[in-house]
Design a protein that fits this description.
about 210 residues, alpha/beta, Uracil-DNA Glycosylase, subunit E, two-stranded antiparallel ribbon, 6 strands, globular
Length: about 210
């Protein structure tokens, strides 16, 4: 499989009350080319990681409406796109929305505080690769359902078999459960949102032998 093939498969998936950033256009924040630009962002990131001999994956639960829904990259908001490029040396990643100011997400902020200190490539992904939302509010965040996870389960399995990560870090219990359900061991850390940022930072520093 190639990065292009993986992203093409992602972009073919459509589910009710789920925003697929590699397929769907947000009527408020996107222009017609936004899904293609998010496909390109993810393809660049994937190809970068594939060229590295040592790989880690950090797995969250699903995309947030202020983060990966807009950028196409999990656990990454628009504010941190330039930091991603500078930290990992992945060039060509672009902002995909029409809004003048880049959005900022709490989880992405805490994640990128730590990523800037780690001198090895980390691939960022989610158990469910899209943004699930409440039926009456497309700009809400809800947990994905068991049915939604099963529908996209093959994408997570394919990714892990393909990348063969040396380290898998699950951000929270939902990410850990998803990994265990497909037969992968991981190290679980506290999710950085809702007051968990200090525990998250401490646990990541322990895993990667960083100074707190």
């Amino acid at each position: 499989m190639t990065a292009d093939e993986f992203v093409d498969e992602l972009s073919s998936i459509s589910l009710p009350n789920v925003f697929n950033p590699y397929r769907d256009v947000c009527t408020l924040s996107d222009h017609p080319a936004s899904p293609v630009l998010r496909q390109q962002n993810l393809t660049l990131f994937l190809n970068f990681v594939l060229n590295e001999p040592k790989r880690s994956i950090w797995l969250g639960r699903d995309l947030g409406y202020r983060g990966g829904r807009r950028t196409g990259i999990a656990l990454t908001d628009e504010f941190h796109l330039d930091i991603l490029k500078k930290t990992f040396g992945v060039f060509g990643i672009v902002k995909t929305t029409v809004d003048d100011e880049p959005t900022k997400e709490r989880t992405a902020t805490e994640v990128w505080k730590l990523l800037r200190k780690i001198e090895e490539p980390i691939f960022l992904w989610n158990a469910f690769p899209f943004h699930p939302f409440d039926e009456d509010d497309p700009f809400s965040n809800r947990p994905h359902t068991a049915h939604e996870f099963q529908y996209c389960r093959h994408m997570l399995v394919t990714l892990l078999e393909w990348l063969e990560p040396t380290t898998i870090v699950a951000l929270g219990a939902d990410a850990e459960s998803a990994l265990l359900s497909i037969g992968y061991e991981c190290t679980r850390v506290r999710h950085p949102s809702y007051g968990g940022q200090n525990d998250f930072a401490r646990q990541i520093c322990e895993i990667y032998h960083l100074e707190a």
